[in-house]
Design goal:
Layout lengths: L7 H7 L6 H6 L6 H21 L3 E5 L5 E4 L2 H4 L5 H4 L4 H5 L9 H14 L6 E7 L2 E9 L15 E7 L1 H101 L6 H26 L2 H6 L1 H15 L4 E6 L8 H22 L3 E8 L3 E8 L9 H6 L2 H11 L3 E6 L5 E8 L2 H11 L1
Parallel strand pairs: 6-7
Antiparallel strand pairs: 1-2, 1-5, 3-4, 4-5, 7-8, 8-10, 9-10
Helix pairs in contact: 8-9, 11-12, 12-14
The protein binds adenosine-5'-triphosphate (ATP), magnesium ion and zinc ion.
The site of magnesium ion has 5 residues, from helix 12.
């Protein structure tokens, strides 16, 4: 071990003389005192070189923890010079400038030395850090030397400090890698779970879309059936109407005209002029019937006025017929804004709903509203009468007005609902989606 007395020069000179320990012991010349001295000197040098070659910091400690010898590692670790640290307290050297009264290293050294002084022969260990270095400290009593009662100046204990920073760093790095691996696994698991969930949602969404598609396909089938049924019904009604009114009237006219001709031939049987007058009246009645039939198919007023004005006109007419009721109209659309294909259904709905109010509601007030936004056309009829809930299942089944109205709405792509109005009375609502072309037409009509 290097001592304070040793200089680099003397170590260099003795280098060649270094030998294995046992060989050095054998080489000691026996009787010669100088030779013995030289052999001791050589053995000491060998030991110092060996100690200096260690990677650990090795120190011999005195009874008060003072450094008696140390190897070169003290310099490698920049704790001082080999000669400079001798005599200093081991804690002061290891922990330069430490003022911590509860310092674990100071406590450890004191405890170990106290124990050794008391005769304990075991080894004391501590793991701690000195600056940036992570170290393992071992204190063990000097071998072959009594721990108590030894002379002053004798070393009591050996302190070995092993730098485990590299090991620590490797362990830290391993832990970091481990945790980053765990993070990556966790992230990957999460990503997989997310993908799985998305996939499941997508499957559910598709299933729902499929169900909806099937539903709307069924609805479409039902609607076309309804449409065909409605057309069929309309045809039957027109046929019946033509048969009952026009057909019968024309038969009557034909018969009357034949009778008139007969009277012309045989004037004594009666006055042909009166019979012809009757025929003319019949023809007028027939013309009237035809007008009313065609009026039912598409109310003429729609062509004369446009949908909004026709609704306005109907409401005014209604108010005149039922003076016990006040009728409020709120028309948020102009004639040109109501798509042509919806004009009849709007007008017919107003007719049916107002007639229902008159027939069933006993209301004092009714409000009719026609409005439109970017996507839909709305019609609303609200009364303050007895309320739709009063309608018995029987009466609902019996009447065909609301059923027809609902069918018409559906056939034109709209929706219909009738509910108890908030407060009292009945609220009937219809709405139709507007196509792009409807919106374009509406924009032009507004200007
Ligand atoms: N505004 C209303 N207030 C209260 N009850 C109503 C109102 N509108 C309809 N109802 C009830 O709903 C039932 C069904 O109406 P719906 O228009 O279908 O048939 P109806 O008017 O009785 O006969 P139809 O319209 O075929 O001449 C009515 O009988 C009535 O009981
Ligand atoms: Mg009705
Ligand atoms: Zn300390």
């Amino acid at each position: 071990m290097a001592t304070s007395a040793k200089s680099k020069g003397s170590r260099a000179r003795t280098k060649g003389a270094r030998r294995p320990v046992r060989a050095a012991a054998r080489a000691v010349p026996r009787p010669d005192i100088h030779g013995r001295q030289a052999a001791i000197e050589r053995a000491k040098l060998d030991w110092e070189s060996t100690a200096d070659a260690l990677a650990e910091l090795v120190c011999l400690l005195g009874g008060d923890g003072e450094l008696m010898r140390t190897n070169r590692v003290v310099e490698d670790w920049s704790l001082g010079t080999v000669s400079g640290v001798l005599g200093k307290n081991a804690h002061t050297v290891l922990h330069p400038g430490c003022r911590n009264t509860r310092c674990s290293i100071a406590g450890f050294l004191k405890h170990a030395l106290d124990e050794i002084r008391r005769g304990t022969r075991r080894q004391f260990e501590l793991q701690d850090s000195i600056g940036a270095r992570f170290v393992h400290l071992t204190v063990r009593p000097m071998r072959g030397r009594p721990t108590t009662g030894s002379e002053r100046g004798d070393a009591r204990a050996v302190l070995v400090v092993t730098d485990q920073s590299a090991l620590h760093r490797a362990r830290d790095e391993l832990e970091r890698l481990n945790s980053s691996l765990e993070d990556r696994v966790r992230a990957r698991t999460q990503a997989l779970a997310d993908a799985n969930r998305d996939l499941r949602n997508e499957i559910i969404r598709r299933e729902q879309a499929e169900v909806a598609l099937r539903g709307s396909r069924n609805e479409l089938v039902a609607l076309s059936e309804q449409l065909i049924g409605a057309q069929e019904g309309e045809r039957k009604r027109i046929a019946l109407e033509l048969h009952d009114s026009v057909g019968q009237s024309l038969s009557a006219v034909k018969y009357t005209l034949e009778r008139g001709m007969e009277l012309l031939r045989q004037p004594r049987l009666g006055n042909p002029a009166a019979v012809f007058q009757l025929a003319v009246r019949r023809i007028q009645e027939t013309a009237e019937s035809i007008r009313s039939i065609s009026m039912n198919l598409r109310p003429k007023i729609l062509d004369d006025l446009g949908a909004a004005s026709a609704v306005q006109w109907f409401c005014r007419d209604f108010a005149e017929i039922y003076p016990s009721m006040t009728v409020a109209t709120e028309l948020g659309v102009s004639d040109g804004q109501v798509p042509d294909r919806l004009a009849t259904v709007v007008y017919r709905s107003v007719q049916e709903l107002l007639n229902n109010v008159a027939k069933h509601s006993d209301a004092k007030h009714v409000a009719v509203k026609l409005a439109m936004d970017e996507s839909r056309l709305f019609l609303e009829v609200r009364d303050n009468g007895v309320g739709f809930e009063k309608a018995t299942p029987e009466s609902r089944r019996h009447g065909s007005g609301l059923r027809n109205l609902r069918e018409r709405a559906q056939m034109t792509g709209g929706q219909f609902s009738i509910t108890l109005a908030p407060g009292r009375g009945t609220l009937a609502q219809l709405s139709w989606p507007l196509a792009d072309v409807d919106r374009a037409v509406a924009r032009v009509a507004r200007v």
